Amino acid sequence: MKDGGPKICAVIPAYNEEKTICEIIDTLLLVEDLDKIVVVDDGSDDETASAARQTGVQVVQMAENSGKGAALVRGFKEIEDADIVLTLDADLLGLTPEHVKKLLAPVKQGECDMSVGLFNEGRGLTDLARFFTLNLSGQRAIKMNILNEINDLDKEGFGVELLLNKYVKDHGKLIFVSLPELTHVMKEEKMGFFRGVKARLGMYWEIVKTIFIRIIKKQNYRK
User: Fold this and answer.
1) Is 75 helix (H, G, I), strand (E, B) or coil?
2) Would you call 95 exposed, middle or buried from its count of C-beta atoms within 10 A (0-12, 13-18, 19+)?
3) Fold topology of 8-215
4) pTM value?
5) Cα–Cα distances in Å, from 183 out to 83, 93, 160?
6) In the chain, what are the domain boundaries?
7) Which label site among 33, 47, 205, 220 has the fewest CB atoms less than 10 Å from its CB?
8) For residue 103, what is the DSSP state?
9) What is the pLDDT of residues 130-182, one digit of tens each?
10) 60 falls in which pLDDT band (50, 70, 90)?
11) CA atoms of 198 and 145, how far apart (whole Å)
């Protein structure tokens, strides 16, 4: 049972992740530090929402697929009184309570404003993909007051992670945390090779747009 301390809530954006979502939630339910878990079903075509509801956590369903940034922001609205927000991808493989605690620890202890978890010793392909996407991981813990300072997160899609990294580097402290033996299901495995590659290229394009539109022009910060 949690005894005092900051209020910590988890938000999991999910799109067609019925096969992995319950295992992730079950792991989070073992972490005593968490006060609330919110799954945001981003317009899935499968049974993601139904599967998540069976675990007893709060599930928010979006009417249509709106992108990762929009799903995260929708989840943040459900936990506005949180002190620290934990975000996780819904397709993780091998998540343990120790991974979660390791990710939360630097923020809880005041060492940083945001921690970002990096795959390490998971699978070669996923580790390599993270290397080429500049440490843009969906596994992170961040202070809610930092989230409240950033505009237009809901418009960023997969670029949301780049935006968060950039903002915290400029306005606070960011720590990267190694999460050994954690990995995820790759898009090519979920969708088949050609559809997966197309989806991956779409993700990279959203990241590029964030770099040139939000970072270079610096239109993402509050006036």
Assistant:
1) helix
2) buried
3) Spore Coat Polysaccharide Biosynthesis Protein SpsA; Chain A (3.90.550)
4) 0.80
5) 27, 5, 20
6) 8-215
7) 205
8) H
9) 544 546 789 999 999 999 998 878 776 557 888 898 899 999 999 999 999 89
10) very high
11) 36
Give the whole-angstrom CA distance, residue 214 versus residue 181: 33
Name residue, tokens 């960023």.
Answer: 156
* Residue 3 confidence (pLDDT): 67
Structure tokens at 20: 């992995």
What is the amino acid identity at position 219? Q
Residues recorded for the chain: 223
DSSP string, 134-201: TT--S-EEEEHHHHTTB--GGG-GGGHHHHHHHHHHHHS-EEEEEEET-EE--HHHHH-HHHHHHHHH
**What single letter denotes the amino acid at residue 207?**
I
Give how far Cα 205 sits from Cα of 13, 25, 163, 170, Å: 20, 30, 14, 23
Helix (H, G, I), strand (E, B) or coil at 80: coil
Amino acid at position 138, single letter: G
Q: What is the mean pLDDT of the chain?
A: 83
Strand 140-143 to 58-61 pairing: unpaired
Tokens 């091998």 sit on residue: 94
